[in-house]
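[job 0412] stage=complex_fold ligand=magnesium ion status=START
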Amino acid sequence: MKNQILIVEDSRTQAEFLKLLLEENDYKVAIALNGKEALDLVRRRKPHLIISDINMPVMDGFELCHRIKFDVGLMEIPVMLLTSFSDPSDVIRGLEVMADYYLTKPCNEVYLLSKVRSILSAPAPQHREEIQKGLEITFEGKDHTIYTNRRQMLNLLLSTYENAAETNRQLREAQSESEALNKQLKLKIYELKVSEERFRSLVLTVPDIVYRIDQEGSFTFLNSAIEQLGYAPEDLIGEHFSKIINPADVDKISLSAVTKKYKGKKTGPKDSLKLFDERRTGDRKTSGLEVKLVTKRRKIKTGVIEPLGEEMIVAEVNSTGMWGGSPDSNRSVFIGTVGVIRDITDRKKLENGLRKARNGLEIKVSEKTQNLFKINKDLRHEVEGHKRTTDELRLRETELLEAQAQLIQTEKIGALGTMTAGIAHELNNPMMGMLNFTQYCIRHTEEKDKRYAILKDTEREIKRCASIVQNLLTFSRIEKEGEEKLQKMSMTPLFERVLRLLAFRIEKENVSISQHVDERTPDIMMKVSNLQQVVLNLLGNALDALKENDKKEIRIGVRPENGSIQVIVSDSGCGIPPEILPRIFDPFLTTKPIGEGTGLGLSVTRSIIKDHKGEITCKSEVGVGTEFILLLPIEHK
Ligand SMILES: Nc1ncnc2c1ncn2[C@@H]1O[C@H](COP(=O)(O)OP(=O)(O)OP(=O)(O)O)[C@@H](O)[C@H]1O
Ligand SMILES: [Mg+2]
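[job 0412] stage=complex_fold status=DONE, emitting structure tokens
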């Protein structure tokens, strides 16, 4: 069966803690929150041990113990009182109420358990027989009656002693612990001192100015690098930092002035303010603050104050806030600022020099670029000039080729002309003879005679031959500088004469002729019969082209044109196929049936126009019509 323990404790937490500890060690535990509640429980069921606190409401631990020890039915239950031992009179009180054991609070768990174990394994005390008469004692001027028996008294005193010894042991333990800690602390302080010393000598020897200022902005430390400004560190200790700052810059870099300006405005990490008396630490501390420092001034003999060496030094400041713990709160408090000042005057000068050099370089580069642009432009002009020359050359080449072709053509025609003239001349005489003979025979033959018609056919054919020969002669003669005289005349009578010649055909074939002659058209120098032949050839060709057409129209136009006159003869005839068009001016080219055309008409025409220093061109479209355009100069030069 498990031993039962009653815990009497007004603090629920402490009671539960004890309960848990004892239950873990296999005891059955009940809790009462004061002496009265405990007494009720004990009367109902006796525990093997009562562990009771002393100070409790309703009924305290002494009273509870007294009630139990003076109750015959309960007195053998051992009672352990928990005391804080602040007062030795508690021991007397414990003896008075016959408490069995004392245990000091706070309980050492191991000690408590070993004590509980030893109490519960000891034989039950025989109080009743051993109780003696009350023993009168005086302690601290007060009388006390002690009823307890010797064993109980011894137990109580022993447990008191044990408690005291335990407390003593704990104290000694704590003392040796604190001694060890103290030793460690001393070591740390020593290390700290050494490190501080090392740090201090480092700080003192670095070429940068290292400063520390207090919450008010007064220097509390400066290394010897401050001598760069002409000061000894002690000149400035206790002085406000603004003393070494260019007066114009003070408001830009001191916390009190800057925060006034930025009140209510938010700054991010990029536009974060930079301060000489920085309070912030970590990422937000000041780095790269550029500031002008003033050097120490000295009085010279005349009483004038002048700077020592260079008046201003450009410096870069990095600073951070220093915060320390306050002894009476966990909050850290602002102690001051520590910072490093680096002289960057030379760097700035170098930067300025570089900037100037760069600007100079940029100007030079731009000049060079402009020059290059100009050269480029000139080159482009030159290239364009070359291109123009090449184009001109190409044009000349084409012209040359054309002239060459023309020359070959002229040569060909010239040779042909000489030959034709010879043949024509030779043929002319016998042909005239043949014509005379034939006409003689016709005259002596009756019309009804069958031979009459044959002779008539022969006469017509001979006449045709004669006309061909005549044409050939005209052609060759024109080629050899036509003999006819030039005279100034209008084109109008020329057209009228030719149209009269063709009137019979025009009427028979039902062709409509329209003429448009500009009144301003001047007379031109011409060989009349030659130009008449030109007009006859053109109109003859036009009439031939209209033969198969329903729409039969010929238009004649004459108008002045830049020192020349333009003559147009157009028809609504069959048109010229494109493959023939380039060759129509070649001699003997004809598309007409054998016996109808010689192919000399246009060839002769062109020779005549050339003889007049003019031009002839042709535009034609099959099924639409043909247009010949003549350009004849007014004067021959
Ligand atoms: N107005 C035109 N319409 C259509 N074809 C034309 C016209 N004029 C000339 N031609 C074509 O050009 C060819 C050459 O004309 P060209 O006057 O030199 O000779 P031809 O008329 O055939 O013969 P010829 O004039 O000696 O009687 C013609 O056969 C014809 O095919
Ligand atoms: Mg013709």
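The domain at 206-262+271-343 is CATH 3.30.450.20 (Beta-Lactamase).
[job 0412] exit 0
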